């Protein structure tokens, strides 16, 4: 029995290489980790502290999108560019780019949430600022994968297109098909146990929670003084 395998496969979640001394490459290497930060920092913390059904289904959509990406990659089996040898990334396929797909799904879904007024919005100007931020991150992430040598231009554009299409389709499905069942999920045994909720029907969630938190504090102080 051969105990030493011919080739080892790495877990490449945060394994991003760039040329020594390349400051732009160093910056873009960190940018290419934005999907990791969004997944672990954004959605995990959202579930722990917010438990909004819109956010939960947003995260589920991203997971489904990545499964679709992996299915297509293993079906098409298109190789990465020749630079994959230096990056030790030739053992995985390149079409479509999963980073680009993730970010364009995120940007598309987030923009559609803003258009519908779902989430924490501070007016039209802030919506434009938020849209500019996440679309800029999506484009720079796409560029980083080409610059660092992990993908070809065609591979990142395929990922971006697929991400936008899947993101828009999932948003429609959640808010047209699943949305009527949100009250049922809220009132279910599991929903009540996990304290999941839907506040997408509230125009200004931030103000609503702020006013209710202050009112609860005043009631508690009044009860203590009695």
Automatic annotation (TrEMBL):
Highest taxon in the source lineage? Eukaryota
Q: Name one GO cellular component term.
A: endoplasmic reticulum membrane
Domain Phosphatidic acid phosphatase type 2/haloperoxidase: residue ranges: 55-171
**Gene Ontology BP term (one):** lipid biosynthetic process
What does the UniProt entry say about where the protein is found? Membrane
Q: Which InterPro entries match?
A: Dolichyldiphosphatase_PAP2 (IPR039667), PAP2/HPO (IPR000326), PAP2/HPO_sf (IPR036938)
Q: Does the keyword Hydrolase apply?
A: yes
UniProt keyword annotations, A-Z = Hydrolase, Membrane, Transmembrane, Transmembrane helix
Query: Could you list the residue ranges that cross the membrane?
Result: 27-49, 102-122, 153-173
Key word Repeat present in the record? no
The topology of this chain with respect to the membrane is: Multi-pass membrane protein
Question: From which residue to which does any coiled coil extend?
Answer: none
Q: What protein is this chain from?
A: Phosphatidic acid phosphatase type 2/haloperoxidase domain-containing protein
